[in-house]
Fold:
Amino acid sequence: LTEDSDALEVFSACKVDIDELRARLIDYIESELASIVNPNNGADVQPTASFQRVIQRSIIHTQSSG
Structure:
């Protein structure tokens, strides 16, 4: 969002400090989300049971809708 031209227009209109927002986002991603990042690039990723359930329900809904 900090590089999207439309988002930047909105941020500017709301007087958001883009540099501070970008720095805080980077800090948050690096510190708070580090535990969910898999250091093994190319590792086999598996969807969670919740994600699979949402997909299955959407398929069933689509099929029953015709």
